[in-house]
C-alpha cells in the first residue's frame, strides 16, 4: 500500500513537465508565463545593478588614483621632511572633493538633535535663559538675557536653519533688554552674549546683532575701572556697580579676567571705537609685566595691585580659557608682529603645561596635574579637555619642527585620555573630573555630566588639523551616548551621576552653542568655518580673523561685512 501510493504520487508530479498539460489549461499557462517574466526581470535588474556598481567602483578607483598621484607630486616637490604636512593637506582636499556619505548622514543626525533641542526651548522656555526639560519650564540663570537663544544664533545659521534663525533674530531686535537689576558675571555675559551677537553679525552681516553687542558691552565696561585695569568679575547691568564674588576674598579670577580679549578686540574692529580693545589689552599688559618663565598663573589675581595670590594653578575651572585666549588673540590678529606677545606668552605657558604632565599606570594615560604651591595633585577636570584642541591648534605655529611635532603628539595623547573619560563609565559619558591613582589609571571624582563640549571641541580640532578619521569615530560614539542617556521628549538633560544614569533637569545653553556645533563641524567639510578665516571664542562662537597692524586698530569694518555662505542643505567656571 505504501509503495503503491508513492508510485502514483511520483507519476502525477511528472505530468507538470508535459507541455500538453498546460495547453489544456490556459489559466495555468498564463500563470507560468507571468512567473517566467517576473524571474527574468529580477535577474536582468540584478545584472544591471552589478554593472552600475562596477562602473561606480571604476570611477572611485580613478579618483583615488588621481589623489594618490597628487599626493606623490606634492611629496616630490616638498621633499621628505614635509611629508606629513602634505598628507594632511591631501587628506583634507579629498574630504572637500568627496563629502563622505557617512559624514553627511551623521551631520544630519546632529542637525536633527539641534532641532529637537531648539524646538523644546522654543516651546517651553522661549526668551528665557535656559530650559528645564523635565519640568518643561524656563529659568533665568543669567539675568533673563535669553542666553540659550543668543548662544544658538550662529549654530542655527551654520546648520542652515533659516526659519529658526530669523525668528530668533526678531526676538533679539524687538525683545532683548539689557536694563536688568541683576548681578551679572562679566565673563559669562561676554563669552555667551557679546560673543554670540558678534558671531551672528560676522556670519550674517545683520547690524541688529552688532548694535546689541555694543549695548551690552557698554554696560560691562565699568568692571575694568580698577587701579590696575584688571576687571572685577561681577557687575550690576542696570546700575553699573562692579565687585568681585565674596568667596574669592575680593580677588579677581584669572579665567574671568583674561577671557574677554577676543570679543572686545573684535568689537573695536567692527565699530572703529578703540575703547573696548584698550580695556582688555591693558589686562594682558599688566599680567605680562610679571609673567613667570613657566607661564603659569594662579587662579586669583588682585585687581588693585596686579599681584597673583597664593592659589591653585590649573588648566581646569577658573584657569583654562586665559591660556586659550593667549593663543586665539594671536590667531585672530592673523599672527602678525602686533600680536606676537600673545604667542610668546602662550609658548611660555605651554612649557609650564609640559611640567604638569604625568602618565598613569598601567595604561599610560597622559593627564594635566593641578599645582598648589610646590605640590602636584593627580586630578584633571573634564573642562581641561579643551587643552588637546588648543595645543594642536598652536602646535603649527612653532618655528622648530621638533617642537611642533612634540606638542601635536602631546595633544593626541591628551585627547585619548579625554575620550577615555567617556569610555570608562557605564553610560559612556564623562564625569566632571577624574583622579589618577598608581596602578589603577583613572577614577571618576565628581560624577555629574552637564552636557559639556570640551572633549568634542578637541576632537574637532584634531580632525581638522590631521585628517585622522579616528577622531570622527570617537566623536560619533560620544554623540550616541548623549542621544541614549540625555535625550528626552522635551529636550536634553545632563546626568546627576554618570554611573547610574540618573538625569538632572537642565539643558545648558552651551549644549546648543558648543557641543552640538562642534559635533556638526566634526562631520562637515573643512570649508565650513575654515580655520584660516575664523577663530572660535571659548563659547564656540566663530569670529572673523582680521590682520592686526602695529598701529593697533583697523578701520571700522562695517562697510566690508559680508554674510558667510553656509553649507548646503570654560569655563570659570561654569559649574553648571
Structure description:
- With 576 residues, this protein is mainly α.
- The chain has a single domain (101-542), classed as Glycosyltransferase (Alpha/alpha barrel), CATH 1.50.10.10.
- 53% of the residues lie in helices and 9% in strands.
- It contains 19 helices and 18 strands.
- The strands form 8 sheets. The protein has a 3-stranded antiparallel sheet.
- α3 runs antiparallel to α4.
- The longest helix is centred in the first third of the chain and has 53 residues, at 26-78.
- It is globular.
- The N and C termini lie far apart (87 Å).
- Residues 1-11, 76-97 and 572-576 have low confidence and may be disordered.
- It comes from Glycine soja (Wild soybean).
- One of its GO terms (cellular component) is Golgi membrane.
- It is an enzyme of class 3 (hydrolase).
- The active site is at residues 188, 320, 432, 454.
Give a quick precis of the structure.
This protein is mostly helical.
Number of domains: 1
Main beta sheet strand tally, sense and closure: 3 strands, antiparallel
What is the SS-derived class?
mainly alpha
Number of helices: 19
End-to-end span in angstroms? Answer: 87 Å
The CATH first-level class comes to Mainly Alpha
CATH topology-level name: Glycosyltransferase
CATH-scheme architecture: Alpha/alpha barrel
Low-confidence stretches: 1-11, 76-97, 572-576
- Strand order of the main beta sheet, please? 3-4-5
Beta fraction: 5-15%
Radius of gyration: 29 Å
Overall pLDDT: 88
Total beta strands? 18
What helical percentage do the residues reach?
40-55%
**Shape descriptor:** globular
Transmembrane segments: 29-44
Disulfide bonds: 385-418
Protein name: alpha-1,2-Mannosidase
Membrane topology: Single-pass type II membrane protein; Single-pass membrane protein
Amino acid at each position: 500500500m505504501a509503495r503503491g501510493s508513492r508510485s502514483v504520487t511520483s507519476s502525477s508530479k511528472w505530468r507538470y513537465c508535459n507541455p500538453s498539460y498546460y495547453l489544456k489549461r490556459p489559466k495555468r499557462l498564463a500563470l507560468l508565463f507571468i512567473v517566467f517574466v517576473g524571474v527574468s526581470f529580477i535577474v536582468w535588474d540584478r545584472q544591471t545593478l552589478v554593472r552600475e556598481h562596477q562602473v561606480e567602483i571604476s570611477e572611485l578607483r580613478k579618483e583615488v588614483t588621481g589623489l594618490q598621484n597628487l599626493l606623490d607630486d606634492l611629496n616630490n616637490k616638498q621633499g621628505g621632511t614635509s611629508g606629513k604636512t602634505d598628507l594632511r593637506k591631501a587628506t583634507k582636499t579629498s574630504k572637500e572633493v568627496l563629502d563622505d556619505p557617512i559624514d553627511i548622514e551623521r551631520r544630519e543626525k546632529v542637525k536633527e538633535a539641534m532641532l529637537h533641542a531648539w524646538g523644546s526651548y522654543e516651546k517651553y522656555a522661549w526668551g528665557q535663559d535656559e530650559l528645564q526639560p523635565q519640568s518643561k519650564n524656563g529659568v533665568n540663570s543669567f539675568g533673563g538675557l535669553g542666553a540659550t537663544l543668543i548662544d544658538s544664533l550662529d549654530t542655527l545659521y551654520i546648520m542652515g536653519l533659516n526659519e529658526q534663525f530669523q525668528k530668533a533674530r526678531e526676538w533679539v531686535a524687538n525683545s532683548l533688554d539689557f536694563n536688568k537689576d541683576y548681578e551679572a558675571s562679566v565673563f559669562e555675559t561676554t563669552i555667551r552674549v557679546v560673543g554670540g551677537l558678534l558671531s551672528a553679525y560676522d556670519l550674517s552681516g545683520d547690524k541688529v546683532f552688532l548694535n546689541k553687542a555694543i549695548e551690552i558691552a557698554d554696560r560691562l565696561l565699568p568692571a575694568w575701572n580698577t587701579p590696575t585695569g584688571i576687571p572685577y568679575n561681577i557687575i550690576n547691568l542696570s546700575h553699573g556697580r562692579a565687585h568681585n564674588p565674596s568667596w574669592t576674598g575680593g580677588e579677581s579670577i584669572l579665567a574671568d579676567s583674561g577671557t574677554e580679549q577676543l570679543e572686545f578686540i573684535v568689537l573695536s574692529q567692527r565699530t572703529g571705537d578703540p575703547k573696548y580693545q584698550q580695556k582688555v589689552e591693558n589686562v594682558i599688559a599688566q599680567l605680562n609685566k610679571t609673567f613667570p618663565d613657566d607661564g603659569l598663573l594662579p587662579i586669583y589675581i588682585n585687581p588693585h595691585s596686579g599681584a597673583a595670590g597664593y592659589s591653585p594653578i590649573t588648566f581646569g575651572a577658573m584657569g583654562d580659557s586665559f591660556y586659550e585666549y593667549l593663543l586665539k588673540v594671536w590667531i585672530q590678529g592673523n599672527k602678525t608682529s602686533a600680536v606676537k606677545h600673545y604667542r610668546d606668552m602662550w609658548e611660555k605657558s605651554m612649557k609650564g603645561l609640559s611640567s604638569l604632565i604625568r602618565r598613569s599606570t598601567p595604561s599610560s594615560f597622559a593627564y594635566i596635574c593641578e599645582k598648589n604651591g610646590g605640590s602636584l595633585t593627580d586630578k584633571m577636570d573634564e573642562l581641561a579637555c579643551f587643552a588637546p584642541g588648543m595645543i594642536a591648534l598652536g602646535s603649527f605655529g612653532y618655528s622648530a619642527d621638533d617642537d611642533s611635532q612634540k606638542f601635536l603628539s602631546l595633544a593626541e595623547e591628551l585627547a585619548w585620555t579625554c575620550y577615555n573619560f567617556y569610555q570608562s563609565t557605564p553610560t559612556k559619558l564623562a564625569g566632571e573630573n577624574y583622579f589618577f591613582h598608581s596602578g589603577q589609571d583613572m577614577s571618576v571624582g565628581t560624577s555629574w555630566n552637564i552636557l559639556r563640549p570640551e572633549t568634542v571641541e578637541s576632537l574637532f580640532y584634531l580632525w581638522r588639523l590631521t585628517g585622522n578619521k579616528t577622531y570622527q569615530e570617537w566623536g560619533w560614539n560620544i554623540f550616541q551616548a548623549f542621544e541614549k542617556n540625555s535625550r528626552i521628549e522635551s529636550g536634553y538633560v545632563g546626568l546627576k551621576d554618570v554611573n547610574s544614569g540618573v538625569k538632572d533637569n537642565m539643558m545648558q545653553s552651551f549644549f546648543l552653542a558648543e557641543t552640538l556645533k562642534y559635533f556638526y563641524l566634526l562631520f562637515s567639510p573643512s570649508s565650513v568655518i575654515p580655520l584660516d578665516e575664523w577663530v572660535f571664542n571659548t563659547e564656540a562662537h566663530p569670529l572673523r580673523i582680521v590682520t592686526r597692524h602695529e598701529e593697533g586698530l583697523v578701520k571700522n569694518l562695517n562697510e566690508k561685512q559680508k554674510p558667510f555662505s553656509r553649507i548646503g542643505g570654560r569655563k570659570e567656571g561654569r559649574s553648571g
